Amino acid sequence: MSTATSLVDQLARLAHPWASLYGDRPALQTAVTFLHVAGIFLGGGFAIASDRQTFVTLRAARLSGQIRHLAHLHTIHRPVLVGLILALGSGFLLFAADVQTFARSWVFWLKMFLLALLLANGYILARTETSLREGTPDTPALWARLRYVSMASIVLWLGLILAGTVLMNHA
Q1: Which pLDDT tens digit goes with each residue over 35-72?
Q2: Are 107 and 167 in contact (CB under 8 A)?
Q3: Vertex 64, ends 58 and 68: CA angle to 5°?
Q4: CA Rg, the chain, in Å?
Q5: DSSP 3-state of 58
Q6: 135: which DSSP letter?
Q7: What is the pLDDT of residues 120-147, one digit of tens each?
Q8: Cβ neighbours around 19 below 10 Å, total
Q9: Handedness of CA 65, 68, 74, 79 (dihedral sign)
Q10: Other beta carbons less than 10 A from residue 106's beta carbon
Q11: Do the beta carbons of residue 141 and residue 71 sit within 8 Å?
Q12: What's the whole-model pTM score?
């Protein structure tokens, strides 16, 4: 028996009480799934709307409009994080409900990889926004970086949704 198989089996045994509870209660399944989807909609919705506004601002706004956009971007981090926390917490519960299936699914691990990229991209976005807001707001290289990370944000959020959809249909 390989170490990975042994670890998956141990995790499945640890999660068995939760998996039994979850499997026997359709209302609980609905609630956890709702929290997962709601978290993705909340976090991704705020993020994608802000990413879109970044493109509009870069195309059309003067420096004063760009500075206002930075202040707006700063307020968006909290609802995006709340959505991510909801999605991560409920995602952990979904994983624990069927460790054997998810731990062996390449789609699940692809989704986790996309999530890691999204978190890293969010960190870069937040650092770039802070540098522009607290430093020199007319730095073209930082605005170009903000454009690229906004583009990556949209792609990663949509990639996560696609991976989750594939996972639900092929797990």
Answers
A1: 999 999 999 999 999 999 999 999 987 888 888 999 99
A2: yes
A3: 80
A4: 19
A5: helix
A6: S
A7: 999 999 999 999 999 888 889 999 999 9
A8: 17
A9: negative
A10: 9
A11: no
A12: 0.91
